[in-house]
Amino acid sequence: MTTYNYILDKIARRGAAFLVLIDPDKHNDGSVTGFAEKCAAAGVDGFLVGGSLMMSRNHEEAIKEIKNLTHLPVIIFPGSINQVSPYADAILYLSLISGRNPEHLIGKHVLAAPLIKNYGIEPISTGYMLVESGVKTTAEYISGSAPIPRNKPEIAAATALAAEYIGMKLLYLEAGSGAIQHVPFEMVQAVSEYCTVPLIAGGGIRTPQTAERMVESGAKVVVVGNHFEKVSDAALIKEFSDAVHTKDPKTV
Ligand code: 1GP
């Protein structure tokens, strides 16, 4: 099964999928090992690995460790072409559709495409939208692009629909890692009602209740990263996982 179909299957059977973002920069003390195992035991569906800025050199090591220790898919969440790795299962082939920087709409893709083909990893075309979240995020600064204003759900919906019509397979509403304010529920609802492509919500999600509201608003994948870098006990990860998984697989 492809990683994309695995995600669709999780959505169908569990109501939504729960992915944990691992930024190898934050786990450069070897702690990724125990953390990944905890996530797998807590019902997490897979991992995103990456970040807007990569300060350390252990990106690929982190991917290998997670693959060795868990049965879960590892999906590259690339901040740059240097993060493309043959050890992952798939890569979110992100187009920064909220911005107008051609490098992030097609330029980097041209450079990454031959690598992805050579490595044999699965590209998952994703319409990536940065949403204003209180302060300027690393992703905004590095990409040199303006986010969608928080109070403009209609802009997000129209942007997302354009991505769907272009043929993208996932949509991602992103407040930015560690964002003060997560993406507004109204915006998640507006996009999910307007489009049929599965919607990912991430950035600044710090409670299981917020994760649950994201799913109630129409998100089909919820991503949490930063919060688990601060508090990562297995019980808390499971609370998030249970909040996202609104369907019991036994009842399907
Ligand atoms: C960031 O959406 C992801 O790109 C996750 O955000 O790290 O704030 O959970 P957090």
In short:
The protein is 42% helix and 17% strand.
Q: How would you describe this protein?
A:
With 252 residues, this protein is α/β, with parallel strands linked by helices. It is built from ten helices and eight strands. The protein has helices spanning 3-14, 32-41, 59-69, 102-119, 138-143, 153-166, 185-194, 208-216, 226-230, 234-244, and strands spanning 17-22, 46-49, 74-76, 90-96, 122-130, 170-174, 199-202, 221-224. The protein has an eight-stranded parallel β-barrel, surrounded by eight helices. Strand 6 (170-174), helix 7 (185-194) and strand 7 form a beta-alpha-beta unit. Helix 2 (32-41) packs across helix 3. The chain is globular, with a radius of gyration of 17 Å. The protein starts with a helix and ends in an 8-residue tail after the last helix. The site of SN-glycerol-1-phosphate has 14 residues, from strand 8 and helix 9.
SS field, number of helical segments: 10
Summarize model confidence as the mean pLDDT: 94
Strand order of the largest sheet: 1-2-3-4-5-6-7-8
CATH topology: TIM Barrel
Spans with pLDDT under 50 lasting ≥5 residues? none
State the CATH superfamily name.
Answer: FMN-linked oxidoreductases
Helicity range: 40-55%
Work out the radius of gyration: 17 Å
Binned strand content: 15-25%
Bound small-molecule species: SN-glycerol-1-phosphate
Which overall shape is indicated by the principal axes computed on the Cα atoms?
globular
String of helices and strands: HEHEHEEHEHHEHEHEHH
